[in-house]
Amino acid sequence: TVDPSTLCPYCDNPLPSSPSPTLRTLLETMAKKSYPDPRPTNVLGRKAPFSTFISVCQRHRFESDILPEAKSKGWPSAIDWKKLAGRIEKLKPKLQLLIDDDSDDGPRARSSAWNEIMELVKEKGSRAATGVKDQFLNFEKTQPGYYGELGSIIIHQTLYDLFPPTSIDVESIAPLGAEEFLQRVLFPEVALRLVMEDQRLKGNSGRREALKILRDSSVYGVAMFPAEQSAEGKYGSGKLGGPSSTRGSGMHGNTKGRLERW
């Protein structure tokens, strides 16, 4: 006999053995919008309009099917958010080299993000390659992989604290503007280096492997760590579902203050 508490109250499919805080919150919220509907397959079944509960079923299928695959590949299901800004700040000297370097074999030349942009410049010209349309088409390439939307918020805020656009010498990063360089070069570089640290990858082969992980895990990251987590303050404990405040969480400088607004 199946324990009905292990089943989704709406579609009767098995729930993951350890539901995430996001799924638990969805179930709690949906319980207030539905009503009991016991049935032979699930005595704890509930009923609501399909459009109301579909997000619950999508989420538990993600956690039942995609999450195990992510775990098998070593992608994290919990991230120490309170330490993330500090980790990024430690990268500042290496990121500064990307801004200052314009040699043919320096740090910038090893940046896949920069090289892809330069290829587009050769193909389409600088105006087209740096335009809004091209940025939209290459949006996936500027995602932080399994760090998801919440990671994206923290990376962006920390980068803008470390490198205010007005502090960047635009002549050294032409044909990009300061904000474009932050978004399309420094942001992917931070994400790549974070993954390299997580997975203990080194050298050029490590960069290639980290880049593959970033691309492969981006959909997982968006689902696992949505931006809503920041609004709920659930990164305060360092893991999802912890205390609901960033105050005293170890966030640094202005980044801490900015994150408290989310």
From TrEMBL:
One of its GO terms (cellular component) is cytoplasm. Residues 98-227 form the Restriction of telomere capping protein 4 C-terminal domain. Residues 232-262 are annotated as: Disordered. Keywords: Cytoplasm, Nucleus. It holds the Pfam family RTC4. Its main location: cytoplasm. It comes from the Eukaryota. It is found in: Cytoplasm; Nucleus. Belongs to the RTC4 family. May be involved in a process influencing telomere capping. This is Restriction of telomere capping protein 4.
